[in-house]
Design brief:
heterodimer, A: about 240 residues, alpha/beta, Rossmann fold, six-stranded mixed sheet, four-stranded antiparallel sheet, 11 helices, about 40% helix, B: about 290 residues, mainly alpha, ABC transporter involved in vitamin B12 uptake, BtuC, two-stranded antiparallel sheet, 2 strands, binds adenosine-5'-diphosphate, binds magnesium ion
Chain lengths: ~240, ~290
């Protein structure tokens, strides 16, 4: 579904990604784990059209995403849950979710959007209670749920999440991971980026370990969890879930 | 009393025009964080286009009005497309300087198209002036008030009820977040420039029958609109209205009771006072950045 080949990105002259190749098949939940500064966010930003110049190839359903703008990429069916959530803090929970469906309102899918709003609010009942509250007043966990809900409102086929569990209490991490498993069961393909390797790999089918802008190890998530070098490098430091 | 009322009428009339111009400043600032110093030139283009279309080409007034506003909207869009967007590293101060340059350019274009002469325009309707407690209220004043109110309400409805208006509000909150949900942010900036120019154009159309219009009228009106927007609080629509009316009335009272030489000084004295005691303006919440 998404195929990245030999991707290179740099900020000015400083390289952030030095030739990454990865592939995500329809229906998979793939984890991409790596330390701070490894290039995880840059990879997602490049896929979503926020990095203006990259080399290599990024193809979604066999179509290159080169030179597409972020809005066009959302219309193709890729949604991002960004690092730091990037909600619209003064707007209400409901308004945030409605803006998530911007591209679908443009396609005049008002009825379907209204149904999806219900679906998302059922998925996160706490958001239903807070529907009229400004997004900025939500707790961290609630904001993360809203960020995921907002991305779902575009009805993506591929959902990219940038460290959705960062800063959340262990119990909330479980809730988020459980939600992702449910979404996958509903047919959404997911790329989950995390520093919390144990949690991410525990939920994923396959995993990639990224180090200094290149893929160091890849394989079935279960194997990575048992892999000695992965365990030593990434699992020891993380809090246990 | 009668004299006082007369000054109030004239102040409110001018103030309503300042308010529309201020609204243009304010909404552009709200959605892009930029101050467009060519805003006054859009007022000039609006006024002179109206006169050309209405009296020159003999179009009916509503069509001439719409045409003049459309011309300014297109001019605003061109400013964004060909000057603002082409800047590679868009630091705000660079963009603001570009708008200063654009204002000089547009003034030159205005002089080429309409010459150096002043042009007058009749009132929108030839109804006789109203007599209220001995003071005269011109029908044009009513036109100005009604249309200004219409613009403010229209903008409010646009932001609240229309998808594009909500998208523009979203861009104002966070361009990055707007891009993430699939809002074409460059188009929204283009639209914001175009709409704010159109508001300057409406200001020009409204003021054309009140005074003579010429290619260099924009400087003064632009600064008045800017002061009104700052006084009310940049980014706040109702602030722009309050700021415009306050400025208009104080100016009229200053001229009436002190000296006509004080007309233009009033704006700046008021601006300084407000900025000193309430830096974000009367109704503003956002802090204004110094860069
Ligand atoms: N906007 C930026 N400008 C310059 N360098 C950046 C920028 N964003 C990230 N980098 C650099 O690129 C590298 C990868 O960053 P990032 O993709 O954010 O890593 P991660 O998400 O894995 O923590 C880091 O070395 C970081 O310092
Ligand atoms: Mg990151």
């Amino acid at each position: 579904m998404l195929r990245v080949r030999d991707l290179k990105c740099r900020y000015g002259t400083v390289p952030a990604i030095n030739g990454i190749s990865l592939e995500i098949n329809a229906g998979e939940l793939v984890a991409l784990v790596g330390a701070n500064g490894a290039g995880k966010s840059t990879l997602l930003q490049a896929v979503c059209g926020f990095v203006p110049d990259w080399e290599g190839d990024i193809a979604f359903e066999k179509e290159s995403l080169y030179s597409l703008r972020p809005a066009q990429i959302v219309r193709k069916g890729i949604s991002l849950v960004p690092e730091g959530r990037l909600l619209f803090p003064p707007l209400s929970v409901k308004e945030n979710l409605e803006l998530g469906a911007y591209v679908r309102y443009r396609r005049r899918e008002h009825k379907e959007v209204a149904e999806d709003l219900e679906t998302v609010l059922d998925l996160f009942p706490i958001l239903k209670q807070r529907a009229k509250q400004p997004a900025g007043t939500l707790s961290g966990g609630e904001q993360q749920m809203l960020a995921i809900g907002r991305a779902l409102m575009a009805r993506p086929r591929l959902l990219l999440l940038d460290e959705p569990c960062m800063g959340l209490a262990p119990l909330l991490v479980l809730v988020i991971l459980e939600t992702l498993a449910q979404l996958r069961a509903r047919g959404i393909t997911i790329l989950l980026v995390e520093q919390n390797a144990r949690a991410a790999l525990g939920a994923a089918d396959r995993g990639y370990v990224i180090e200094n802008g290149t893929i160091a190890i890849e394989g079935p998530a279960r194997d990575l969890l048992l892999n000695k070098s992965v365990t030593q490098a990434y699992l020891g430091k993380e809090c246990r879930v | 009393m009668q004299e006082f009322l007369q000054y109030i009428f004239s102040g409110i009339t001018n103030g309503a025009v300042y308010a529309v111009i201020a609204l243009g400043f304010s909404m552009l600032y709200g959605s892009t964080g930029l101050i467009n110093f060519a805003q006054g030139e859009f007022v000039m283009i609006g006024a002179l286009s109206l006169i050309s279309l209405w009296k020159g080409v003999n179009l009916p007034l509503p069509l001439a009005f719409a045409g003049a506003v459309a011309i300014t909207a297109i001019a605003g869009a061109m400013l964004e497309r060909f000057a603002i967007r082409s800047v590679k590293k868009p630091h705000p101060i660079v963009l603001v300087i570009i708008t200063v340059g654009a204002s000089i350019l547009l003034r030159g274009v205005g002089m080429l198209v309409w010459g150096k002469d002043s042009h007058g325009s009749p009132s929108f309707s030839d109804h006789a002036p109203y007599d209220i407690l001995g003071a005269t209220l011109l029908p044009q004043s009513l036109w100005i008030l009604v249309l200004t109110l219409g613009v403010v309400l229209g903008l409010h409805i646009f932001h609240k009820r229309f998808l594009t208006g909500r998208a523009m509000l979203a861009c104002a909150i966070s361009t990055k977040a707007a891009g993430i949900v699939g809002i074409p942010t460059e188009k929204m900036v283009l639209l914001a420039f175009s709409m704010s120019a159109a508001m300057g154009g409406i200001g020009g159309v409204l003021i054309a029958p009140l005074s003579m219009s010429s290619f260099d009228m924009g400087m003064n009106l632009g600064l008045k609109g800017f002061c009104a927007a700052m006084i009310g609080g940049l980014g706040s629509s109702w602030g722009a209205v309050v700021g415009g009316l306050l400025l208009g009335v104080l100016e009229a009272l200053g001229v009436g009771f002190l000296s006509s030489g004080l007309k233009d000084a009033a704006a700046f004295v008021l601006l300084l006072l407000i900025l000193y005691f309430r830096p974000s303006g009367l109704l503003g919440t956002a802090s204004v950045q110094r860069f």
